[in-house]
Design brief:
heterodimer; A: about 110 residues; mainly alpha; about 0% strand; B: about 220 residues; Four Helix Bundle (Hemerythrin (Met), subunit A)
Chain lengths: ~110, ~220
Amino acid sequence: MAEHATHDQHAESHESHSTRFYWMIGAILAVITAVEVAIFLVKDTIGHELFLAILFILSIAKGAGVVMYFMHLRGDARIFQLVFIVPFLLAVTLCLGFLTIFSHHVGIAG
Amino acid sequence: MSATSHAHDEAGQAPLVGSLGVDSRKLGLWAFIGSETLFFTALITTHLIFYARTKADLAAKGMLEHMDPKLYLGIDLTTILAAILLASSLTMVLALAATKSKEWPKFRFWLLATIVLGSAFVLGQVYEFTHLYHEGLKLAPQYVYEGETVKSLFGVTFFVMTGFHGLHVTLGVVWLIAVYFKVRRFAASPENPMDVELVGLYWHFVDLVWVAIFTLVYLI
């Protein structure tokens, strides 16, 4: 039974793509980086809030692309997803928490 | 050793399967990557806090131009560095694909390309650091710039954060070189696909950290 589970997880962890697929993902990530830089160059004309929103969305998309397809986390065993996603969510929460605490506007440690 | 640890799968790998039913080395590396995520988040958060707290003060003294790499150097260099690291992630995943299909000439080409791109990134960062240091940004909480004492942790947090990333890239290049020669020497080893996969995971993580640093430090 345990051996059966092992085989299942190995089958799951060996999801592979063609090299053409990787080139496509690489091209998409390159385009996202180019758009990020282009938006940085015109940030004075689009407003700070919109600039930040677009930049965060693009960066999250880029990071997700690397993790899901280059690191193959999308089709990999759930235990790998768990040991990465839990610390990642903790890290994001801590970052936002500390930035709020030390903010000049609403922080309590300013 | 258990019987499963000797079992070879279809790709010719010899997975060290633990009680969780996955390769122990890969699980260990993912756990390491999880801890590294927290480590780099701490460095990035610290930098963002001190940058926000000293930005107005430095701008009032007319010193922000020399303190902030994106104002001083522009983002041209870091955009090139981001493109280099992104390209190296692509070459890394192509090297892994070549390993799984046992196309060794392709594997050697793509892994060497990854090594070259990684080395180019490190050299670019050395250039940036040297430039910033000579212009006055120091790895110290207090220093004299053009006759005036500057009290700021900006330089410390910037150099520590980007320096640790550069150190990770450097160690990654050393690991890539080691795997290149190991696979070349022992081409028939069933461990090769997992060896390449592990260094690939580490390399993609290093790229992922740069995605965050590039956005949060250089663009915002």
